[in-house]
Write a structure and sequence with these properties.
Elements: H1 3-48, H2 52-73, H3 76-103, E1 106-107, E2 114-115, E3 118-119, H4 122-141, H5 146-171, E4 175-176, E5 181-182, E6 185-186, H6 187-197, H7 200-208, H8 214-237
Antiparallel strand pairs: 1-4, 2-3, 5-6
Length: 250
């Protein structure tokens, strides 16, 4: 009997495990770098008061970097998240329209390319944010319970995205009025980002268990979930003197 043939299955399994670990490590390094790129470009925009054109170009550049890396690595995990985020990002403009027209708290500059009431770059920006949060949430789910990973991911979303909101005001991308805020981020936006991030860890597991095209359906769910998340958050802490929980405007 050939002894080499007897150990091939185990060797193949060990090699697959090592490859999976290597792929995950490379993906996480890239995601951290991509998050730093987004934070860095927003910081530069805020420091230089760059305006909406810079937001458009920097967002499309980072989007191209993420798509290019995913194609180069043939990364099925990030590919699923980019598809999910892209679908959700285009649905998010309905939420934006509600904020602009109904709450009248969100204001975008005039004279930039728009889709409905949102800047053209907004769906791409949401693609980046959701893909980054989703990959981090999946990484957390492998290291802690589903409940803890879900809470950690939601807390990350509820802090990371409002940071971008704060920087956006200084950069001239958009701003908020007539609503209680922490720095330049409204309380209701902070709460809504926490709420909309809650399903992401669950979605990560579902997406990986199904063909990649199924991620488009999950993106539809994620995009639709944004609307009640924002409405609930607005009802709780959005109005200056009419919310379920009272917070005054300064």
């Amino acid at each position: 009997m050939d002894g080499t043939r007897g150990i091939e299955p185990g060797a193949d399994l060990a090699g697959a495990v090592r490859q999976g670990v290597s792929d995950e490590a490379a993906r996480m390094r890239f995601i951290v770098a991509a998050m730093a790129l987004v934070a860095g470009s927003n910081t530069v925009g805020a420091l230089t008061h760059a305006g909406p054109r810079f937001a458009l170009y920097s967002t499309l550049f980072t989007f191209a970097v993420m798509v290019g890396w995913t194609a180069w690595r043939r990364d099925p995990v990030l590919a699923r998240w980019l598809l999910l985020g892209f679908v959700a990002g285009w649905l998010e403009i309905a939420t934006d329209a509600w904020l602009v027209a109904q709450t009248r708290t969100l204001v975008y500059p005039t004279g930039e390319p728009m889709v409905w009431d949102s800047p053209l770059y907004m769906p791409f920006a949401w693609t980046l944010v959701l893909a980054q949060l989703g990959v981090v949430g999946g990484w957390l789910a492998q290291r802690m319970s589903l409940a803890k990973a879900t809470l950690a991911c939601a807390l990350l979303g509820g802090s990371m995205i409002p940071l971008y909101e704060h920087l956006a005001d200084h950069a001239g991308y958009w701003y908020y009025v007539d609503t209680p805020m922490v720095w330049n981020a409204p309380l209701y936006i902070i709460l809504s980002e926490f709420l909309l991030s809650l399903p992401l860890v669950w979605m990560h597991g579902v997406a990986l268990a199904r063909p990649w095209r199924f991620s488009a359906l999950l993106g539809l769910v994620a995009g639709l979930w944004m609307i009640p998340s924002v409405m609930l958050a607005w009802w709780l802490v959005g109005p200056c003197r009419a919310g379920w929980t009272f917070f005054g405007c300064t």
